[in-house]
Task: inverse folding
């Protein structure tokens, strides 16, 4: 299928995204605005380009945190949510579980309740104006140590905000092993929160095993190094552990995957691993959710039917009720049939 038809089909299909960092969906104009408000001068083109000149995970994470520091007023988060709302609209994402990383903001002295008030107001607006549902997973972060992560969790528990459905563990897995966060995750689980963790993004399969066994993570962010461990792949298949795969992110961070063509998601899928497709950090990796589906179709040979399975997988592995999962999957099927009815010339692609 040609690119224009593919994008038309993918735009018509309702989608979910399970691994995306809300702070990583921001426009050039938002970055320039908050920079100006922070430093009282215009950002130069060279400074802008410099923000995106990284070639590994650590370099990218530095830029991620640097931009968060440009935000000097809680109300400026509204700009971020306007960008996020546009992203959801453009990609027809009807349900999203997004990470929010509060640590950099809290270090500036921001009040967690005030942040959450603005964030929840923004989410209600997205729901009311666009009918799109966004739930929050608070990234307690491995970058700033165990005490900071526990502090983040305690703020979440005190806040008791219904939009927050879980916690996650982002940051560089090289410097923050899962075992350091055992107590944080145990406390979160006991309080009824969902728990997920980045693992196997740059460290080997033991890191994924630790996230599953020590933290009891319900889904794994990335998990691509599982591909080098055949016995572990069998375990993942048997347990139907969900991997939140972010293909372009892995190419950008340039550790396990050096080019898109060598991404292991097709091998994992073919072996029966429960994978979903996500973007991680759209602005930083210059990719949208529809782009990712196009990339794996074009570069890795996924068929259209397989893409439909992946789209449904994202709903099935989300933290919504079984009846909501069923409803969304039916809507995918309906939109699929309608699109092909309207594009009979493309039906040959299905055989
Ligand atoms: N935070 C934002 N993006 C991330 C990634 N790819 N890995 C770890 N932490 C992150
Ligand atoms: Zn991530």
Result:
């Amino acid at each position: 299928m040609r690119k224009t038809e593919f994008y038309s089909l993918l735009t018509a299909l309702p989608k979910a995204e399970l691994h995306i960092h809300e702070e990583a969906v921001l426009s050039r104009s938002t970055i320039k605005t908050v920079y100006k408000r922070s430093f009282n001068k215009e950002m130069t083109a060279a400074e802008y380009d410099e923000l995106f000149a990284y070639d590994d995970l650590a370099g990218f994470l530095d830029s991620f945190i640097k931009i968060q520091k440009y935000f000097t007023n809680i109300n400026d988060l509204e700009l971020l949510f306007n960008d996020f709302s546009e992203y959801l609209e453009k990609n027809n994402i009807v349900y999203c579980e997004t990470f929010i990383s509060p640590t950099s903001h809290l270090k500036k002295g921001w009040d967690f309740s005030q942040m959450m008030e603005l964030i929840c107001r923004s989410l209600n607006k997205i729901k009311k104006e666009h009918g799109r549902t966004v739930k929050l997973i608070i990234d307690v972060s491995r970058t700033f140590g165990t005490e900071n992560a526990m502090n983040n969790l305690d703020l979440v528990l005190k806040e008791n905000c219904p939009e927050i459905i879980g916690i996650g563990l982002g940051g560089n897995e090289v410097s923050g092993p899962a075992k350091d966060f055992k107590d944080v995750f145990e406390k979160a689980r006991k309080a009824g929160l969902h728990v997920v963790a980045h693992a196997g993004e740059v460290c080997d399969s033991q890191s994924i095993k630790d996230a599953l066994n020590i933290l009891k993570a319900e889904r794994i962010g990335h998990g691509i190094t599982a591909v080098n461990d055949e016995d572990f792949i069998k375990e993942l298949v048997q347990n139907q552990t969900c991997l939140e795969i972010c293909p372009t992110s892995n190419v950008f961070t340039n550790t396990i995957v050096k080019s898109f063509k060598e991404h292991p998601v097709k091998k994992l899928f073919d072996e029966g691993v429960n994978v979903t497709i996500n973007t991680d950090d759209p602005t930083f990796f210059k990719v949208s959710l529809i782009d990712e589906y196009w990339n794996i179709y074009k570069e890795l040979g996924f068929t259209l039917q397989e893409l439909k399975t992946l789209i449904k997988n994202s709903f099935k592995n989300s933290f919504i009720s079984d009846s909501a999962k069923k409803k969304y999957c039916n809507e995918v099927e309906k939109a699929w049939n309608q699109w092909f009815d309207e594009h009979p010339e493309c039906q040959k692609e299905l055989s």
About this structure: The mean pLDDT is 97.
